[in-house]
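ASSEMBLY PREDICTION REQUEST
Request ID: AP-0331
Submitted by: J.K., bench scientist
Number of chains: two
Total residues: 835
Priority: normal
Notes: Please return the full assembly, not individual chains.
Input sequences:
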Amino acid sequence: MHTTSLVFRNFHHVIGRTYCQKRYYCFLKASVESTNRILSPCIDISKTFRSCHGDVEYQPSSALFISGKSVEFSPFLTIDLDLEDRFKDLNLLKKNLEVRGLNNAVDLEKLVCQYKKLTELHEQKSQMSNKEWKSTTRQFRTEYWDLTEEVMLMGLKLPNYLHPDTPETVEVLEQIGSPDAVEKTHSHISIAQKYNLIKFSDIGKKAYFLKGDLAMLEQSLLSFICKRLTSKEYIQAHITEFFRTLPVEGAGIDFTDTDQIYLLEQKAEGKHVDNKPLTGYYARGVSLVTFAAMVTKKIYKSSYLPLNYFVSGRSYLTESAQEKLPGLFGALQTMKVETISLCENTDMAESVYKQYWQEVVEMYKLFNFPLRLIRVPANSLQPSEQMRSEVQMWAPSIQSFIKVASVSMIGDYLSRRLMCRHGNKKKGNLSLLYMVLHI
Amino acid sequence: MCNQLTVKMMRNVLLMRHMIQKSYLGLHHVESSYQVCRYLLNKRHFSQNLDPPEWHRNIQLPDPELNFYYLVNNDNTKEIEKNIENRKGVSDIHKVIALWKKYHAETDKEKRDGLWKELLDEALKVPNSSNPNSPIGDESQARVVEIIGNDRVVANKLKTANVIGEELGVLSHNDIVSGDRTLHFYGGLAKLEQALIKYTLSKIIPKGFTLLTVPDMLHPAVIEKCGFPTTGVRNQVFKLNSSNHGDICFAGTAEMPLAGYFMNEVFSLDELPTRVCAVSRCYRAEVSEKKKEKGLYRTRIFTKISSASDCTDYQSRRLNIKYRNRQGDLKHVCTVNGTACAVPRIVMAVFEKFRPQVGSQVFIPPVLLPYMDLPEGETSLLPMDKHFTLHKQSRL
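STATUS: Completed
Returned structure:
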């Protein structure tokens, strides 16, 4: 019996609005016109095939990659991990994982082995016509899809390249001013209580209220930095603080690890749907995730690069993600200003990195506090970073330098994961974007 | 590496460096070891004793002190019932009265405790009384108090603020990455938001309001004591996954953390009235069925400055906020909460009022210009250059 499959394209599912097209396959006879449930019928034979031969039970475990065997969901974007290039120098990749302390996170040998198998299968598939592919055994197709998913998910865990200037131990670039010239003082906690400037509270985790002049100082500091950035023609943006899984995973955060990021509760029809990649909703605030959300699936015009954006607003860190420092130094909710520069290539990114760094250092010199400028070691880098330099300010009460600003080389990490490019699509000359992040 | 070097070893290196400096020998490898040790010491876990004590104690929730004299007085029952109906409340005053009588008739202590809890739960649902000047009914019954300025009269239909924002390139909806009903502001619109905040603060702070920064992540009890439910189908509160993060909610308005700020406080008479304001991000899990309520009008995450609705002593009875009168008696304060500036809706008004019928820019109200950081001579939001296009397919 010949059946005609009709595809209902329903973009807005009830459960927290998944961002993949959810397709309802309906096999009907020719007299389909009598039903009044058709929204936008179209004949899609290839989707018919997947609905017959895919896996209706399949649930994706990543927001960035969805297996070809999925019947219910189709991918929102295509990732480009360039594994072939990364595997060209395995020793370098091994060293990268080792110095970052990520040996246990990725089984490199297994990944390489599976990748080779996948390459062979892919060779076979690419030599088949569509008809031949559809007539292959279910076992072959399942093997191909499963292997692809395994390789892609393992590949997504690989960290960014390591910049050659990233040291293995902390490298002090410069020290400005001397901590010895600054007296040891009481902590800001006792000063705040004495002058009634901060109220610490038990109404939330590490809750605090800045009062009066101190609250005005916070607004003034933010205003000062924003004005400075605007004068240098940075474009101000205001992005939300909550994100779907896509930009979180795109920024290299393990969204399943709730020690690293706050997971919001979501229910549909009385049941929890928080923990599924496609319905996950996270609170992070101003961070690399903000820019990941901003650049996803955008094609920028090359003539505008380097393009600089900045955002200011709230940042929410979990206790594990925040530094273990006392009082406000270790607060979980803070106000931040972050900038990102979108660059055409690595040379432009390097040049912007140096420029950013100079600007940051000049700005903090204005405060006339002792500063220390360091390059962090590889084992302190985020997976998305190739290199990070920090400005640290002397905190007299704890007799320690604490990070107040940093500049990170992100390279093409976000571009590859979130399908953002620069160029002209119609002319077919799209290239990867390279990024520099400044906190 | 921190595990390999104990704190004691690190301090020894520091001591050695100090001694070598004293003896002017200056060995380079000691210097680098010193730097490593200082870095690692900076990353060590500081003693938790250095944190404020409030961060290590459980939240001190007060027991509500309701006005049972008013609630169970039969003379007031009809009025209370009518008020519940007008406010579309879910409480039952007759049940409250019955529980009150049962509680006082009960002699067994354990049963009395159970009855008291049940009585409190039921009585807490009774909404605040309504001012006789408040109109009854839906929004169509709202009474105009004053009209300031003139309505804009145009020949043709105006575009909505959402459309204007998108045409200018300063506004985008990005449900895919940020969730439903969330907005991204760019360029001039982000500046307009900041200008609105600065302008509003410049007006209200001279009137005696103290600016506070407020926490957004709160214990749900604080939010419920303000009168906002955090459970049930109708609640609009974003919560963290409790099994991973414990009971934490995000504030839907600064009124909630400000209420927490004053919880358990006792004021002296000369401290009243106390006026505070806060700039905060408001997180509301709103789901509006109305098709018109989308975009800037009803967004889930927005910025607001909070200062006016009269709550009398409804909140203070739940939050234990009191003052001592001249006789030395403790009385509950009355609270007045309000919004000085809800950014998205003001932006809507600016866009729709100040967009000329011909032309693609939006003029900035003159009072906001000093706060906008626009180039000299510029008085409007011009369309932004289109720096990018959005790729709609899943493959390049």
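REVIEWER COMMENTS: Residues 177 and 293 of chain B are 21 Å apart (CA to CA).
SIGN-OFF: pending second reviewer
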